[in-house]
Amino acid sequence: ATVSLDTIASLAKRRGFVFPGSEIYGGLANTWDFGPLGAEVKRNIKNAWWEFFIQRRDDMVGLDGGILLHPRVWEASGHVEEFHDPLVDCRNCKSRFRADTLLEERLKISVEGLSLEDMSRAIQEHQLACPVCGRRDWTPVRQFNLMFRTFIGPVEEQSTRVYLRPETAQAIFVDFKQVLQTSRVKIPFGVGQIGKAFRNEITPGNFIFRLLEFEQMEIEYFIRPESWPETFEHWLAEMASFLNWIGLGADRIRMREHGPEELSHYSRRTVDFEYSFPFGWKELCGLAYRTDYDLRRHQEFSGEDLTYFDQERNERFIPHVVEPTMGVERLFLALLVDAYHEEPAVDVNGKPYTRVVLRFHPRIAPYKAAVLPLMRKPELVERARDVAAMLRQHFMVDYDETQSIGRRYRRQDEIGTPYCITIDYETLEDRAVTIRDRDTMEQVRVPISRLVEELGQRLAA
Ligand code: ATP
Description:
Oligomer: single chain
Strand content: 25-35%
Largest sheet: 7 strands, mixed
Subunit structure: Homodimer.
Helix content: 25-40%
Low-confidence stretches: none
CATH architecture of the largest domain: 2-Layer Sandwich
Shape: globular
Pfam families: HGTP_anticodon, tRNA-synt_2b
GO molecular function: ATP binding; bis(5'-nucleosyl)-tetraphosphatase (asymmetrical) activity; glycine-tRNA ligase activity
Subcellular location: Cytoplasm
CATH topology of the largest domain: BirA Bifunctional Protein, domain 2
Bound molecules: adenosine-5'-triphosphate
Binding site for ATP: 199-201, 209-214, 283-284, 327-330
């Protein structure tokens, strides 16, 4: 049975993973802050991604492009023209919806190939009731561009109007020439980037699934045009093995091929990795074959030569790209849902209770270990603090001396800490501690002198 989104959101709030944004001011709808534990998880996701896709490969380099780019970039990329969703308003209660979602979810009509007029007509003909107020008085369907706009310098000045980037990819194309010139890369090679992206989504929601502001981890992998089919297969396999590497259950992931009508303006083939979220199978991340669309357009719009010279073949061409893209927060949500388990258990006093445990992969868990003195006695506390200080040189470690040991175990289970290390009176004599395994709840005794090594091995296993 899948956990409900409410359960996940309330655990996330209670334990400091995700807070509603600007809460002391009454909140700002659909914005979120990542608390102390959420910040760790996001860092772990991003570090894992960077290690897996950039550090461990000899054909990848990184980039950290700006959020603000020249406005022409978004004309060249097609985002000014194409990056919009169909919008419809209820005239009565002023609620605003994505017309395509309304048609698909309420009327079960496929929107593939429908024009704005077709959508307006379908809404009329089916007498669609507003999901909020129940009335049937709709505006015509119109396009709504998802890019956030802002200004550099005095607001009056037209020429300084810029967009917050809706995807990180474009900086990679814009800097393509400079990466070539400075890093001696040869095709095939990729450029990877992690950073914020912004989309003025009409219907954000489902907790942190669809956000206005989120982080993307994107790769543009540059290839010769004819090699795209096998490159595409390679990256499908790489993405699947990354998801597995960070502990996401394969049984809740499936691949879905985009139909011809569904493809974005730049793509010739797209496959989504979908995850079985509490609200259904939804896109987790995706792979797109963007052809040479972006480099060609930037060459045209900028007037710069963006070709690549293949020395072996003595040939000049515009590289094609295959693009694996992932959203940090969406992965975070999938990891939370995947990790969440409830199970019957018995506490240290023999009392039954429902154990809530986040079975995060150690790579993702915010704390790798928690150090717990059995009781709040000065001699135990002092030794426990020393142990925590020693471990902190190597891992993110929590330290907790409040409440009963049983409650402290429960807290660590609920935040997914793989190992609890207990310091008791015996420790003072034998210089050993107890390691409790989150998943098996087994306890073993380990000398303090071997603790770093023991934990390191267990976490890497
Ligand atoms: P959707 O169909 O859900 O709107 P998309 O197909 O527009 O998404 P892409 O443009 O392919 O998404 O973006 C790449 C990745 O960025 C997505 O797979 C997702 O993980 C993430 N992402 C996209 N939009 C959002 C958003 N509004 N909030 C959080 N993550 C997002």
